[in-house]
Design goal:
Length: about 220
């Protein structure tokens, strides 16, 4: 069976994956871009942006694992759009005409709408389903490849609570947000189901990888 994977998911030292006050103008609320500066500095990011340069160390190695072997993505409504996006029939996500997913992408929302085909192979499907049912649907669409659980924090927490995540990569960024949406709440003892490894890089972030051992 294909794996359910999380990659490059950034949290603050106090466990917040986004700030407070999300809006169309502030996708991560008061956190701004601080949770993702480590990624923006990598060679991978520069290549995707059409720029030269960027770092080529461990941060770059980790960030490049985002795409290989992925056949579908699942994301929450809060990752797809700003609060209230479902009332805007023209909203097509944050990423422009060619989103970076290039696979069937399932948006978990109570406000379903017809599928939305984008450039580059991404088609957004709007699904009102439990984590287990959503994963079953995504696996069928993935054609034997793995399914990426893209976030946000609430969605990843729900999939972890249901013991559906096989590989979890969390990046701990050395900032304190104090408020927002936390990842770890209610997941006491999660580490018992995983082999956990850590890598700290010169950028100051710590990469935590959880490989599932208990099923």
């Amino acid at each position: 069976m294909s794996l359910a994977r999380v990659h490059n998911f950034s949290v603050s030292l106090d466990g917040f994956a986004t700030g407070e006050g999300l809006s169309r103008e502030a996708p991560f609320g008061h956190a701004g871009e601080r949770l993702h500066q480590w990624m923006f500095a990598t060679r991978w990011w520069h290549e995707r942006s059409g720029d030269a340069g960027g770092t080529s160390g461990a941060d770059d190695v980790f960030v490049r694992r985002f795409e290989p072997g992925i056949g579908a993505e699942i994301m929450g409504a809060g990752k797809y759009g700003y609060p209230g996006w479902h009332e805007d029939s023209e909203w097509k996500g944050w990423w422009g005409p060619n989103p970076p997913f290039h696979t069937p992408t399932f948006v978990l929302t109570r406000h379903t709408r017809p599928p939305l085909a984008m450039e580059g192979g991404t088609t957004f499907h709007f699904l009102d389903a439990s984590p287990s049912d959503a994963l079953k649907t995504a696996r069928e669409a993935a054609g034997g490849k793995d399914v990426r659980i893209g976030g946000g924090a609430t969605v990843i927490r729900e999939f972890l609570a249901a013991r559906l995540i096989d590989h979890l990569h969390v990046v701990v960024v050395p900032i304190v947000l104090g408020r927002g949406v936390r990842l770890w709440d209610g997941l006491e003892g999660l580490e018992r189901d995983y082999a956990v490894d850590t890598v700290t890089t010169s950028s100051g972030v710590t990469h935590l990888t959880f490989e599932r051992t208990a099923r």
